[in-house]
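User: Fold this; tokens only.

Assistant: Input:
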Amino acid sequence: MTEIIPIGSDHAGYALKARLKQELTSLGYQPDDLGTDGPGSVDYPDFAHQVAKRVSEGADARGILLCGTGLGMAYAANRHSGVRAAVAWSAEIAGLAREHNDANILVLPARFVSEDEAVLILRRWLDTPFAGGRHLRRVAKIEWEPT
């Protein structure tokens, strides 16, 4: 079965999102575009929460978000239980986010990466498995509950 990957962006990530959807399709994934649907100004949390909710609830294993810096999307997405949204500005960072932290949402800073860089980042993130081992303990500690 083809893996569905929800993808969302604000206005700053709208154009790059279109390119990443093409790349996902060419790689055999099924992108599910949750918006925005145009370059007009929107509020990034609206789209971050939609993607993160699907990952948090287990409807989808992974998701992708884009905004100008990537930071706002990551802040909002990481409010959801079980979500590990990582801002990646290089393929190396994307790979380490998957390998060491089991990042399940890739967040791209659309104003700071080119289309070619974004494609390389996406591919590394998709292709890198979680290493497990000692990292399992660390990832488990992310789901912190105050005492």
